[in-house]
Amino acid sequence: MTKKKEPIVSVVMGSDSDLPVMMEAVNILKMFHIPHEVYLTSAHRAPERTALFAKTAQKRGVKIIIVGAGAAAHLAGVIASQTPLPVIGVPLDATTLGGLDALLSTLQMPGGIPVATMAVGKAGAKNAALFAVRMLALNDIKLGKELAAYIENMAGDVLKKQEKIQNALHPEN
Amino acid sequence: MTKKKEPIVSVVMGSDSDLPVMMEAVNILKMFHIPHEVYLTSAHRAPERTALFAKTAQKRGVKIIIVGAGAAAHLAGVIASQTPLPVIGVPLDATTLGGLDALLSTLQMPGGIPVATMAVGKAGAKNAALFAVRMLALNDIKLGKELAAYIENMAGDVLKKQEKIQNALHPEN
Amino acid sequence: MTKKKEPIVSVVMGSDSDLPVMMEAVNILKMFHIPHEVYLTSAHRAPERTALFAKTAQKRGVKIIIVGAGAAAHLAGVIASQTPLPVIGVPLDATTLGGLDALLSTLQMPGGIPVATMAVGKAGAKNAALFAVRMLALNDIKLGKELAAYIENMAGDVLKKQEKIQNALHPEN
Amino acid sequence: MTKKKEPIVSVVMGSDSDLPVMMEAVNILKMFHIPHEVYLTSAHRAPERTALFAKTAQKRGVKIIIVGAGAAAHLAGVIASQTPLPVIGVPLDATTLGGLDALLSTLQMPGGIPVATMAVGKAGAKNAALFAVRMLALNDIKLGKELAAYIENMAGDVLKKQEKIQNALHPEN
Amino acid sequence: MTKKKEPIVSVVMGSDSDLPVMMEAVNILKMFHIPHEVYLTSAHRAPERTALFAKTAQKRGVKIIIVGAGAAAHLAGVIASQTPLPVIGVPLDATTLGGLDALLSTLQMPGGIPVATMAVGKAGAKNAALFAVRMLALNDIKLGKELAAYIENMAGDVLKKQEKIQNALHPEN
Amino acid sequence: MTKKKEPIVSVVMGSDSDLPVMMEAVNILKMFHIPHEVYLTSAHRAPERTALFAKTAQKRGVKIIIVGAGAAAHLAGVIASQTPLPVIGVPLDATTLGGLDALLSTLQMPGGIPVATMAVGKAGAKNAALFAVRMLALNDIKLGKELAAYIENMAGDVLKKQEKIQNALHPEN
Amino acid sequence: MTKKKEPIVSVVMGSDSDLPVMMEAVNILKMFHIPHEVYLTSAHRAPERTALFAKTAQKRGVKIIIVGAGAAAHLAGVIASQTPLPVIGVPLDATTLGGLDALLSTLQMPGGIPVATMAVGKAGAKNAALFAVRMLALNDIKLGKELAAYIENMAGDVLKKQEKIQNALHPEN
Amino acid sequence: MTKKKEPIVSVVMGSDSDLPVMMEAVNILKMFHIPHEVYLTSAHRAPERTALFAKTAQKRGVKIIIVGAGAAAHLAGVIASQTPLPVIGVPLDATTLGGLDALLSTLQMPGGIPVATMAVGKAGAKNAALFAVRMLALNDIKLGKELAAYIENMAGDVLKKQEKIQNALHPEN
After folding, report:
1. Spatial separation of the C-alpha atoms in residues H139 and D86, rounded to whole Å
2. Any idea where the domains of chain E sit in the sequence?
């Protein structure tokens, strides 16, 4: 399966400087072998490109769109208004306001056009992809099993970290 | 199709006082004929009921969980941590802080367990259900057509309101 | 001069419920006899109507666009990205967050596409129109004189209010 | 007295990266010779481990639970909902929002399940342990005397710092 | 047992206008038959009265102090600095800032003097008393049983509300 | 002594709608028999009137200027920049932001030109006048005694309110 | 065309430390060959210089004033109150509050005196100049074409960045 | 005149780590030759020392008290409640919240006990001393002249900075 063929999740961002944060989403999609693409566009600097992307995504076979944007983060909402696909927004910390501007610009969508908003920054980017996995697993038994294993592993990681802490505190044990 | 049979969307809330707001979600689900249930539980006052709900939802056939909660709104995150299903959170304005507490408690989930957060209050409740519709429409052609019609209608409503305003401003026309 | 002919200022809003606030702008435009129109569209619910409006405004002779919107207020930015005309944004208080969401969504535009943002609500709507007057007066001597008179009158109003207060405090004088 | 035996205060945290901050609590407990344990669990990544911890803490002889968590800090509330023991929450600064998210997520508990919240970060971690000491001193005369001495010492430290400042400002004296 | 004799919990507030909110604490204490007193003093308007109260509370047999205050809510911190007893703070919504001022003034205590802070307003006042009950139950088996019953009842109440909602939604059932 | 003659405190406000709040200052000045004036001007609508007021206040015998203003509250800073007299600012709650805009606009003066800022609204207006009394009492023994009595009375009021509460809670006593 | 002759845009700032941020505006003006000046004055430290500047700007041929200021950013409002020219405000991040103080002090102007506010910091400074270009292009066909080209170029830049990202992700292609 | 003799301004701070910021106040007092002292005390860690300081300040000849404190900054309010002298508060940025906690804790004093609050941090510390100078100059003609000169110099500094900028931009001139 080649990533650039038939992507079913599109990871969109407003600026190439957003890539390091949005890689958290990409890496999760890679881990679960979800065909995906990385797409750069801007609600404000490239509105026609954005509209074209949004209007053709469904026809191209994309099922879920993840959008990272900072400042007055309109990109997720603008895309959501031009596609019936589920859109997940990741507010980015790109100004002096700690991401509060992007958070409110992404989240406070008026009734009618939903954007599923995640936490600001890397945690949000990672969770956006995990949310896509949860959606896709509804109709994909194999993926569902991988997701269940992933969730179980997280609990296991906590146990390992407990040991690590314990050793740090009581090296003699 | 009876609503109480085989719900595929579960609308959960932390208090019966949240019902008027969460009815915005219920009404959208009714409009799209999505089998659903309304479930009341509390992350804090009824943790075992909450855990039981979360752990058995998938087996009962539920596909999507919508959770409304106010104040230190843990309910969506607590449920999301005990089910692989996609969970949509609706922060409610239940304190003196305008919903900012519920918003941050719902949204700022750490990496690993996603909650798809919507706007505070009624707009968010409505959009939670519309997001569920977008998800379900990925695998339901009929629902997809209804969703497309719904989206198109919104644009039509804007036209009607334009006329209404025009008449209010220039009654002579 | 008929208002509906050749508007040079377009007052746009996202919802008919915004009209009472945006009338502050309309009333200033009427007072200065600026040909204007009131236009209702939504960045999210009517994106094509919005794009069409933005792309054709200049050709229709519109010189300045005033946009009022609440919540995740994308409308001003979305219009500004599709026209070279100056766009003035008025954040509206439409949610439980006191207009902070609309304020940040309108103001925090990334470099490249400016939106001239005014205060939240009625003061902002009024000032949006007065800012349009200041712009138009740069090339309209008569309007410049009316603007100068308006500014002078405000100082006079302060004097009258001083007397009113004085009488309220010392009715014997 | 071995720390790992019969802990009466449990210091819980959501991530091993929280340890440097939570050591402020550990160090106070060490200073007052309060038997304690350091426990790592996650409300979201390890919900069963968290539930087991909360439900068995009282039986294991734990009297007070201190919980540090960042972001959508649900851990303290989730534990408090599954134990009758007093739970003290320490919001941690783990995101771009300066700890405001953790603060509101920990503090704004609905009526019924209290979490005693301390300041964000190190000051809060230290005070969480000092609050535990105040509680335990209610029934421990010796500990009460040590607490009184600790409080008195703080006033003495202020005097020493005054001298230090005085010398810095007037080295000739 | 007369309330005015031998109070072991003191409910302190800065203004008689705070009483309706702080009654949430008083009512919980009454329900659990905890001897208590209601005490009015002000950190700023009656500093000597406040100091005398704080310094003598322990000798009078008080074990826990609950303090409600609004605006620049110094009262809890000022009392905590003059007694070794555990002090629980309840920030009140008494200004135009939704209680954020009282919240930060009560919570952000520097390391050394802890104040256990509860949610803003009525939920916080109720939880302050419930936290006192949790503390006292550590050394009072009977109270511990009553607390366990109270906690269990909350889960039962959730069930009753579920039925109420169910009937409201489906009256035919 | 006639108030309009020789005022030594000037109470300035930006709008006649501010009078009800600023009367809290006026009433304190009346109570302490401080000659004062009420002056209405606007930093923005009447800049020359404001400059004239500021530049001549000292020559007219004014010693202290109290300024109430809302929204982008520039008035106190603008006056302080044009007089060497001490200026006290009272931020007013005049917009949808709870007075936070006025608070920051009044308080965050850059180094060089101080404005002594009080709390938002009525408490701030009252305290502005009490701060003026504290200043004037530095050189007025009689006023100093009245101030001391005022401060003592506040403590007495607390006692009376304690009785009132006590009776409300235990009417039988 | 010499910049210091006949400036039609004046870029004003409150401190020389603001220059690196405000150069974003200057550079845009240079790129579009708009005659401009850089002017340093302070609303608070140099009120007469500020008043003189504001009152004479129009006569000197200035058409648009861009003002950058931090903290209690009064400068834009103070200038706008003394000139009929359009004034664009750029809030700067100059304190510990992330520019929120400057933002609200610049934006929340009362009805009557508009300040067109841009985003905090460099993005805002750049957009202030671009907004000035949009205004001037209303009456300058050549400038209008340059502006159109600039806008088109932004969309082109997005395409180039897409390629750059693509290559970074798939270097083999 | 020796500084340690007969101080008339007391600069108080809660921690020796506050000294670098509060030196801004000390340096202004030195520049104007105001006899002053630097005093370290803590509302919470040394309440008796604080009370003693506050109650005896007036008798020692102190006329004005400047107080710098961070976090839940109670120190200024606690001192103001125990002295009739004017108290100036400087909120310090000592936590993860950018000084917002100290700002609200210092500013939002209830009616009755005023604290004249300055900006957060160094600008506030400097202005606190300048406000003290303004107060003292009311009854000190020589100081009044020095203050007038200081104010005039600030305007001169602006001119010098203008030249500096001009040269940086146009080194050839």
Report:
1. 58
2. 9-139, 141-173
